[in-house]
Write a structure and sequence with these properties.
By secondary structure, this protein is of the alpha/beta class. The protein is built from 8 helices and 7 strands. A 7-stranded parallel sheet has the order 4-3-2-1-5-6-7, with helices on both faces. Strand 2, helix 2 and strand 3 form a beta-alpha-beta unit. Helix 1 (16-31) packs parallel to helix 2.
């Protein structure tokens, strides 16, 4: 993998481990010569992630909608900042730039971005791995909901299993490198 898109919170949350894991991910990507593609912000976990990648000598590309960029929250020290017009364009551009997606803890925006990416994967729009870094069980309730969707007949097991969920960065990167997209379509019974 050459480029990984990371979605995460524009705040740091209540547990310092969220920030610690964001920093570790940024550093690890830089050490592996993997370009970080992220939301471009200089606040929250996004700042921790990008600063650690930059400090480790990594390449960091920010993609930010003009609405947010004009508020002055764009990170000034990135390798490249791409300003787009809408949030949808941001997701589309980040997808175009990356070979895989990781979501750290975050709020509505992080879930929106991650679920659009996994939906596109389910529909075959892209064949990239999508992962959740499950820091201190942050995504456990979501994993349970995804299992519930499957038992209730709204999600096939093969598509449920597309989403990589792990508390371990190394395991996520290994699974992403070994990922093969399913060939079964969404509507094939």
């Amino acid at each position: 993998m050459k480029n990984i898109a990371v979605f995460c919170g524009s705040s740091r949350g209540v547990d310092p481990e969220y920030s610690s894991q964001a920093k570790k991910l940024g550093q690890l990507l830089a050490q592996r010569n993997i370009t970080l593609v992220f939301g471009g912000s200089k606040v929250g976990l996004m700042e921790d992630l990008s600063d650690s990648a930059l400090q480790a000598g990594g390449k960091v590309i920010g993609v930010m909608p003009r609405l947010l960029y004009d508020k002055g929250i764009g990170h000034p020290g990135l390798s490249e900042m791409i300003v787009v017009e809408t949030m949808h364009e941001r997701k589309l551009r980040m997808n175009e730039l990356c070979d895989g997606i990781i979501a750290l803890p975050g709020g509505f925006g992080t879930l929106d971005e991650c679920f659009e990416m996994i939906t596109w994967a389910q529909l075959g729009i892209h064949l990239k791995p999508v992962a959740l870094l499950n820091v201190k069980g942050f995504y456990d309730p979501l994993a349970e909901m995804i299992k519930h969707m499957t038992t209730q007949g709204f999600l096939k097991e093969i598509h449920r299993d597309m989403l990589i969920i792990s508390p371990c960065l190394e395991q996520i990167l290994h699974k992403m490198e070994d990922y093969t997209a399913p060939t079964e379509g969404k509507w094939i019974r």
